[in-house]
Design a protein that fits this description.
- This protein has about 300 residues and is α+β, with helices and mostly antiparallel strands.
- It has a domain at about 35-220.
- It is built from five helices and 15 strands.
- The strands form four sheets. Strands 5-6-7-8-9-10-11 form a seven-stranded antiparallel β-sheet, with helices on both faces.
Length: about 300
């Protein structure tokens, strides 16, 4: 989720299997967001009229399997249904420009944190190789020989074929496109997770959720609302306390730290992590004499 604590940079991590989501935010006017997973994919949101219309996924070609997709476009069809297209030899900035041109929306990636990609990126709009992406079905390229039997393959079958380089697809992604969600709704695990992130992103950045991102009651009640969360903090040392001259004798103590909130639902768990600043303002016996640690509690444990 995007609802981190504290002021400044915020990061959020959602996990289902090997999938995690990371978001970064500077302020309301300079929001930049990316997602990442342990298989070296970075996801970038595309937004039109304050509604998420898809995600561009990028994998570092240095770790990508030869012949597999290094850039993938997930285009939203319904709340939790996304089509999947991929490139094997196209740079992320070129892919983003191609998609922006398709939509006729040159600023649709304005919230995308391209700096999170491991690949060197040029300015959007400078298309060097205008190569259209390949469409996929069941996580496999429609041009791949295995496509003829893809409807008969299980999610594990797709994962094996793609991760082994036997079939063309996206290593680490193709399985989740086929794997059903643990919720009763008819959508893939990947679709459900992207839908959840889109709703959280819109709510955090725009203060409201678009009709396209509005989660169904069953999605919200079953698997997309946290059920039990525990937050742990790790604090650094207090900075030198500052005497407060006005009013009754008091001092202010400040410390910085990190937090990890672990939540779970429907057998799925995820962590939300970020940075936080803890301020204490406490009365002291003598003006200007501040002990090393605050004598009163702050807002955090």
């Amino acid at each position: 989720m995007m609802n981190g604590r504290g002021i400044g940079r915020k990061c959020a991590v959602f996990a289902l299997g090997a999938f995690t989501v990371i978001g970064a935010q500077a302020n309301a006017d300079e929001t930049r967001v990316s997602m990442a997973d342990e298989t070296h994919w970075v996801y970038l949101p595309a937004v039109v009229n304050e509604s998420v219309v898809g995600f561009l996924a990028v994998q570092d070609p240095m770790v990508a399997l030869r012949g597999s997709y290094t850039v993938v476009w997930f285009e939203r069809m319904t709340t939790a249904e996304f089509t999947m297209e991929g490139w094997t030899d196209t740079a992320p900035d070129d892919a983003a420009a191609i998609i922006a041109d398709r939509f006729g929306e040159p600023t649709m990636f304005q919230y995308a944190d391209f700096s999170a990609s491991a690949m060197s990126l040029a300015a959007l709009g400078a298309v060097s190789i205008y190569t259209p992406p390949e469409w996929t079905n069941n996580g496999i390229s429609i041009y791949d020989p295995w496509q003829s039997v893809s409807d008969q393959l299980t999610a594990d079958d797709v994962e094996f074929l793609v991760n082994s380089g036997i079939a063309a697809g996206a290593v680490g992604l193709s399985k989740s496109v086929v794997m059903p969600s643990p919720c009763p709704d008819s959508f893939s695990a990947q679709g459900g997770k992207l839908a959840k992130f889109a709703a959280d992103f819109e709510l955090d950045v725009f203060g409201t959720v678009s009709d396209a991102s509005a989660l169904s009651a069953s999605m919200a009640e079953c698997c997309l609302v946290p059920q039990g969360c525990v937050t742990k903090y790790v604090w650094g040392d207090y900075a030198t306390p500052t005497p407060i001259a006005s009013g009754a004798p008091s001092c202010r103590w400040t410390r910085n730290g990190t937090y990890t909130t672990t939540c779970s639902f429907c057998g799925i768990s995820w962590n939300t992590t970020g940075t936080v600043t803890d301020n204490h303002t406490c009365s002291v016996a003598v003006a200007g004499e501040c002990p090393a640690k605050p004598p009163c509690p702050g807002a955090y444990p």
